[in-house]
Write a structure and sequence with these properties.
Layout: H1 9-19, H2 26-32, H3 36-39, E1 41-44, E2 47-50, H4 58-70, H5 73-81, E3 85-87, E4 92-93, E5 108-109, E6 112-113, H6 115-133
Antiparallel strand pairs: 1-2, 3-4, 5-6
Helix pairs in contact: 1-4
């Protein structure tokens, strides 16, 4: 496991940079750069990301990228997509990408293609949801279920 994030030189550089923003306002940033929204936004695959309303400039982005590289983010992302064991607390892969994989895709972890099982579970969840919506699945009293409380208990951590 790597050293704590806040002990790295890249983190300290980012902290020093943050101090230089004292007193800076978004109003001033937009005044100084009328094209700020264009300079600090990105669009791909039908998604639009606007980070112009954050206290960032090109130096901030450079320092954030340096921090990501120092923490080996690209290698760790590649390990996740390769199905490697990165969830050390549970001793397994954190294969979230498989949840979004189209049927017929192949994503292996420990030599096993997990996509068919993921889609089997997703189809089961969809059938369950339909049965709640159409009233065929009923509660203990025999009445249609009107309220659902979902308590998520899963969490996979990538130690960066």
């Amino acid at each position: 496991m790597s050293a704590p994030l806040n002990t790295s030189s890249a983190w300290h550089e980012l902290q020093q940079h943050r101090q230089s923003w004292e007193g800076v306002t978004l109003r001033q940033l937009f005044h100084d750069d009328p094209q700020r929204a264009r300079h600090f936004s990105a669009e791909a695959c039908g998604l639009y990301l606007d980070y112009s309303k954050q206290l960032v400039n090109p130096e901030t982005l450079r320092l954030l990228m340096a921090l990501a590289r120092a923490r080996h983010l690209e290698e760790r992302r590649a390990a996740m997509f390769a199905g490697e064991l990165i969830n050390h607390t549970e001793g397994r892969a954190a294969f979230h990408a498989a949840l979004r994989a189209p049927k017929g895709s192949v994503m292996r972890t420990a030599g096993v293609d997990v996509v068919p099982e993921v889609h089997r579970v997703l189809e089961h969840m969809a059938a369950f949801t339909r049965s709640i919506h159409d009233g065929t699945w009923r509660g203990a009293t025999g009445q249609p279920i009107r309220k659902i409380v979902n308590i998520g208990i899963g969490l996979s951590l990538i130690h960066i």
